[in-house]
Amino acid sequence: MAIITEISYANNSVYAQVVVDNKGNRHSIRDGIQTKYFVRKDSNSMFKGFSVKTPDNKSKIYSVTKQLFEYCQVDTIENQDWEDVSNYDLCPAVELWTGTGNYNNKEYYDIYFRVNDSAHLQEVADYYNLSFPLPDDIDMDSNNFEWHSGTLKSMIYRLNRDKFNTETNFKVGSVRFVGGVATLFKVYKSNHKDKEY
Fold it and tell me: Cα–Cα distance between 123 and 106 in angstroms, integer?
């Protein structure tokens, strides 16, 4: 038995589903293509991970941003393994850019950020001139807890527990850049745990 633990949305519809099997393995499934998630063992950073998409076996590397280290007031930022996304066209309505995901050849570059609510999603969509990610019958303001990302909560907790204790928002979206241009806007229902796959 597998449980759906996350649903991502883009272009007004479901984009992909993340399922966890009875052995604890995480897989993302989109259009019948499966992506497996792993933790990198060759990195000094506690936030490095990667995924492998089948059948082409492309590896996507995930990292935390310099901006998140600065937000959490980490003193030893120069010794950490992070990505600086300041060279990208960052929407000014976003307070916190949290992580990145990219293929080794920079085929495209996903930048993750903290989302406030559905109105905030619309601001970001308007800035990049991209489609609103959610279907008309779904919003982020209902069942608020289902949108909270355990990954973001863990990152902030491990960086600065005092900061974590004052945080109430752990919702996450992402913008995909191809050739430096924003092309895809996603949001994640990251605490979805009530449906068998």
Answer: 27
Q: What is the dihedral of CA 2, 3, 6, 10, to 10 degrees?
A: 70
156: helix, strand or coil: helix
Domain ranges of the chain: 3-196
- The Cα–Cα gap between 174 and 160 comes to 23
At residue 18, the 3 state secondary structure works out as strand
Cβ atoms within 10 Å, residue 36 = 13
Number of H helices, E strands in the chain: 4, 11
The two structure tokens encoding residue 99: 């992580």
Q: What confidence tens digit (pLDDT) does each residue in 1-28 have?
A: 677 778 899 999 999 888 787 777 777 7
Tell me the pTM.
Answer: 0.84
The pair of three-digit structure tokens given for residue 56, joined into one six-digit string:
């082409």
